[in-house]
Design the sequence.
């Protein structure tokens, strides 16, 4: 079969601003009245709200435009069996593509042809009814996703096995733990066996063991010759699973190539210049997190590199220690918060990392974090790094709830100064990632 | 091989019936779900299906029959009120289900696609199950009054048309439900106004009084413009021989039903395509 599985032509989605939030008749009348008088106070209050495209929308509104194109002139073909990752900053329009393809909303212009049944793992489990048992919900969910009852019945045992629910399958799902709930939901969706699969960030849920199983299932899906469209922030997952990646930027396709190329370009292009990452940039780049509108627990507000005197900079001598300052707002009490600082090379290979719990003398402070603004500082000691450029990763981990990752968010350079002034150094010639100051001894054998 | 063509401007009058048929299993499960989930964790459970119309009838009999003493044209009060209540409840049930079909399912609808019409359609069948149950109860009382009391009721050939009246109730409820559901997306006020409006509507329908009580020609005209009037009156006539078997009224009622249903389908179809963007 030579026909593409998905063929998208000049797809566009436009939201009209201002006209969105008038939900009551009174507001409508008010709007008419103000239009007659030539101004409309509600014009600037419209909101898509639930979507990450919000920031771009607000921007459009500030420019005074009436319309906001979340997506414009997007065209690409996906061949059967391809596993395609879609990446881009938050709000670039990735989810809008999936929403249109899964027919949740209609495009404003353009068209898409889909050959084959399309199944989606877009925020699974939403069709569950709390009063119904797991068994009833499996059937319900399966048919919502387009299966016949007989088809669900044929896969029922497999689904229950995968979800690992045992006898709880006949308990109303409102009595389930959130983990059980998600496992069941994912199990249903993963066993749909449609020709085309769309997956959007489901790995942010469940415990680690289950996430591994999900990843395994996705690999299996991807390897079984099915067409997969995969929206994720996790660059490593895209690297592992996909055969092709599409970068979406400002509602348009900006690059369509191998995952390695696209991810490389994406990360380079989005590297923050300077030594400070501000809140807006973090919101656009953060991966994972429970909800798209931002984490309900912890929101990272600033990442800053500075020396021990507090001078902000991104170029250090190898002989001076420096500090990574992570500022965040805690919205509700969080138990066992972990901040992880990691350093990678330009290809993203992580080789140096530290977690806030490592320092026992301060571990208690992170154990219960009350609502408020905090800054966590991680001191990177002197005499570790080699003569090259490094990239910073920051992860805020709230175990079993969420992890927010910022990959290759900042670049910094280290000038290697040498540990022994009487010697000419050549460490850079070898390309060592790190060149710590270590102890050497020489003694006669025997 | 499934082939889906997503296009920007599908005509507003295009409704994909074949697709809805494809999703018939979902329809069945939705009906099952609504029937099983609705009275879970209640003591009386499914007994409520029966109790609701019975209690309404008892209240009507007490207030409008005994206290207010409104005429029932010689028909036993219990039969008179119950016949109206059972049909009206079906109509109202379908209408309410349809009216909430978009607004109260936004969670699912913004995550998965399935033909949205399935939701209001499921209301037709869910409520039909209740109607069937209520009809049995009604027939019990009806036969008791007919056979064991001097009720003066004369069942007639009109009974053969009763299934048609039930179908009309369903279509009418669906039509108005679709309209309201589409409008609710734009005007949230309707959500609060709806219970009040349906109650008003019930009193504008000859349920607690016979249509013959309205003599003022203007009011009479209005009364018969209400499509439910002909349905209730004709059903009563079929069972009791009292009431009006007005063919003109029934034709008008079918006409209104057809117009409301067709326009409701189109409007709903247009709104459901992008309503996710505005919630």
Sequence:
């Amino acid at each position: 079969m030579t026909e593409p599985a998905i063929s998208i032509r000049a797809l566009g989605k436009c939201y009209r601003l201002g006209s969105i939030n008038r939900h009551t008749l009174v507001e409508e009348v008010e709007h008419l009245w103000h239009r007659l008088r030539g101004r409309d106070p509600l014009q600037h209050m419209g909101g898509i709200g639930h979507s990450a495209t919000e920031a771009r929308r607000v921007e459009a509104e500030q420019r005074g435009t009436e319309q906001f194109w979340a997506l414009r002139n997007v065209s690409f073909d996906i061949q059967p069996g391809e596993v395609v990752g879609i990446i881009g900053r938050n709000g670039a329009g990735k989810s809008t593509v999936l929403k249109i393809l899964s027919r949740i909303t209609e495009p404003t212009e353009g068209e898409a042809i889909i050959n084959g049944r399309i199944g989606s793992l877009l925020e699974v489990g939403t069709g569950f009814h709390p009063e119904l048992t797991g068994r009833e919900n499996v059937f319900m969910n399966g048919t919502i996703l387009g299966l016949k009852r007989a088809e669900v019945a044929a896969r029922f045992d497999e689904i229950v096995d995968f979800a690992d629910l045992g006898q709880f399958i006949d308990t109303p799902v409102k009595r389930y733990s959130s983990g059980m709930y998600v496992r069941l939901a994912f199990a249903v969706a993963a066993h749909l066996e449609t020709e085309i699969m769309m997956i959007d960030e489901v790995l942010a849920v469940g415990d680690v063991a289950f996430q591994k199983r999900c990843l395994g299932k996705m690999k299996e899906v991807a390897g079984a010759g099915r067409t997969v469209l995969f929206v994720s922030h996790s660059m490593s997952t895209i690297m592992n699973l996909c055969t092709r990646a599409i970068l979406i930027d400002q509602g348009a396709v900006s690059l369509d190539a191998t995952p390695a190329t696209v991810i490389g370009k994406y990360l380079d292009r989005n590297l923050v210049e300077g030594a400070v990452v501000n809140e807006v940039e973090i919101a656009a780049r953060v991966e994972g997190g429970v909800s798209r509108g931002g984490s309900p627990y912890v929101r990272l507000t600033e990442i800053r590199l500075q020396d021990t005197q507090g001078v902000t900079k991104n170029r250090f001598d190898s002989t001076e220690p420096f500090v990574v300052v992570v500022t965040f707002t805690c919205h509700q009490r969080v138990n066992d918060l972990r901040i992880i600082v990691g350093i990678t090379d330009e290809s993203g290979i992580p080789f140096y990392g530290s977690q806030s719990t490592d320092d026992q003398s301060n571990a208690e402070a992170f154990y219960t974090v009350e609502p408020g603004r905090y800054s966590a500082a991680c001191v990177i000691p002197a005499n570790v790094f080699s003569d090259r450029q490094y990239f910073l990763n920051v992860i805020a981990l709230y175990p079993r709830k969420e992890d927010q990752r910022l990959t290759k968010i900042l670049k910094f350079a280290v000038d290697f100064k040498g540990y022994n002034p009487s010697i000419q150094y050549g460490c850079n010639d070898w390309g060592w990632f790190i060149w710590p100051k270590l102890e050497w001894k020489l003694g006669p054998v025997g | 091989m499934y082939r889906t063509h997503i296009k920007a401007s599908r005509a507003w009058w295009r409704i994909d019936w074949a697709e809805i048929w494809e999703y018939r299993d979902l329809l069945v499960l939705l009906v099952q779900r609504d029937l099983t989930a609705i009275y879970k964790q209640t003591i009386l459970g499914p007994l409520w299906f029966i109790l609701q119309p019975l209690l309404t009838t008892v209240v009507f009999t007490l207030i409008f029959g005994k206290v207010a003493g409104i005429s029932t044209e010689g028909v036993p009060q219990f039969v008179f009120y119950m016949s109206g209540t059972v049909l009206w409840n079906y109509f109202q049930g379908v209408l309410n289900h349809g009216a909430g079909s978009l607004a109260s399912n936004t969670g699912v609808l913004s995550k998965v696609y399935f033909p949205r019409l399935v939701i209001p359609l499921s209301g037709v069948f869910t409520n039909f199950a209740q109607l069937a149950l209520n009809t049995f109860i009604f027939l019990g009382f009806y036969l008791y009054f007919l056979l064991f009391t001097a009720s003066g009721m004369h069942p007639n050939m009109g009974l053969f048309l009763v299934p048609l009246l039930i179908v009309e109730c369903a279509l009418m409820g669906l039509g108005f439900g679709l309209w309201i559901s589409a409008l609710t997306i734009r005007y949230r006020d309707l959500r609060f106004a709806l219970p009040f409006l349906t109650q008003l509507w019930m009193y504008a329908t000859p349920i607690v009084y016979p249509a013959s009580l309205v003599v003022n020609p203007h009011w009479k005209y209005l009364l018969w413009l209400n499509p439910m009037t002909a349905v209730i009156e004709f059903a009563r006539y079929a069972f009791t021989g009292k009431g009006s078997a007005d063919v003109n009224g029934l034709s008008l009622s079918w006409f209104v039903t057809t117009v409301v249903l067709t326009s409701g389908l189109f409007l709903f179809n247009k709104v459901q395509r992008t309503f996710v963007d505005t919630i």
